[in-house]
Specification:
Layout: H1 7-31, E1 49-50, E2 55-56, H2 59-77, H3 82-85, H4 108-120, H5 140-143, H6 145-160, E3 170-175, H7 181-194, E4 198-205, E5 208-211, H8 218-227, E6 244-247, H9 251-263, E7 268-271, E8 298-300, H10 309-319, E9 322-324, H11 326-329, H12 332-346, H13 349-384, H14 390-411, H15 417-430, H16 433-439, H17 443-446, H18 449-468, H19 470-474, H20 478-503, H21 510-527
Parallel strand pairs: 3-4, 3-7, 8-9
Antiparallel strand pairs: 1-2, 4-5, 5-6
Helix pairs in contact: 2-4, 6-7, 6-12, 6-13, 7-8, 12-13, 13-14, 14-18, 14-20, 15-18, 20-21
Length: about 525
Amino acid sequence: MVYPSSTDAHALESARQYNEAYNLAFAQQLKNKDIPEGGSKAVVLCDPIVGPVGDVAPRDFIIRKSVKAFSDALLDLNTTDEAVKEKIVDYYGQDELIYLGPDENIIPEDITWMTNRAAYRGYPIPRAFISSKPDAGFNHKVYGVTSEGVAVFADVALRSQNIDPTKQPFTVKITGGTDGDVAGNVIKILHREYGNNLRVVGICDGTGVVEDPQGLDMPELLRLVHDSLPLSSFDGSKVSSTGVKHDINTQEGIRARNSMHNRVKSDLFIPAGGRPNTINENNWRDYLDADGKPSSGLIVEGANLFITPEARQLLFDNAGVVIVKDSSANKCGVVCSSYEIVASMLLETDEFLAVKDELVVEVVDKLRALARVEAQLLFREYKKDPTSALPPASERISRAITRVHDAVLAHFDDVCEADQQILFTLIEEHLPPKLRELALDRVQQNVPLAYLRSIVASSLASKIVYREGLQFTEALPDSNLGNMALQYLKQEKKVQRLVQDVRSSQLSNKDDIADLLARGGVRAGMDTPN
């Protein structure tokens, strides 16, 4: 929800919001590669002027009314009412389910209203209409789910630069406030994982900037995170003699805040807030010092579109800056939402609430594992060819997974019943353990078949690409891709049985043999002629 402050601001937003929505939707589709839902974005531009005499309505009133109008419009187009369906121009011709995720200016009361409205309007699975529900959902800020993934990508990225964050001090600068979702949580998570090795040397938000080359006072930062306070609340007495704090009440403070991401030197830069296109093809040189060296040689994009594609490439070509793209680094937020959606399909609200704490832990474990396998693949690809930047590799990974996903879906109807049952074992693998325990027997009844098939396709595609790399699937023709994926899964099942047999044998080196089988047996089996 975008709320301009004036008619002029509304005109400016009207001119740029289509492009921003398109770019965000493109990034979202890349980001959604690991989950059954496709990616899209919607921007609702509110008109602050209402009435015949140009009255300015209260901001909150307009946003809340706009949320309701937008929700009803979507429900109109996804109705079960046959009389309404007859009036819809539908070029797709198939039933669709939409799963919304809240973003800017959406509050918990909106989410509750939208869920209830979906039920009132007869939406087939109203609890799955929108994620991040305040009760039967996973609040992204409370559980830091996006930041969990960002932290994993940061870990793998630092290690690629020969920095072991568990053993060595490292410095990081962050855009985005201590009261923000991604920035606040990433501070908390990095401190949880690395303790005093973490040194935040600069952080800025809408209220100011705090810097210290020796590292800011960590207890004070964590206090602000815990209390959801902005940087303007940072206790000035906790700033050391080598540090500085600026608010935005002076021109000097504004300049310091706006330039922090360029000036402050650190091992790692995490953009976790700020406007899209902050670093672009016109100003990327500001990120370099007088000698042409970058202020941080490693960037993990916690925020969407902070750096333009052109600027990413220019920073890499001219200064060797290694950048982990947003669609990889911050994907875990949407993956978490996907788990909430399937939980909404399988559990009643009271059931969900009874196991929510346990389920959150299991979901976070899955998020971190999914982030790690992609991060490891990214840097394996980079190690093969250090002359190629990471962002194109990130997009290649997304396209490779989506290509296999689509091929598996297209191949489904040609697969015999026995092989379909093998494919559907991936659903059990996809679900967190507690969800399997409580509701595996409800899957066929509660979850739409198209969604189940998409779980299978996305799970299998991710498994193959992350394990085998890009060249394995890119070398295969579309005509054989779906069948190859099925054969890969069948070979994996065979290898798993062999591994169990070896581990239960009396061989003296059985564990070494089993580990080798587990690591390379599937690919070796695929490459062996029948």
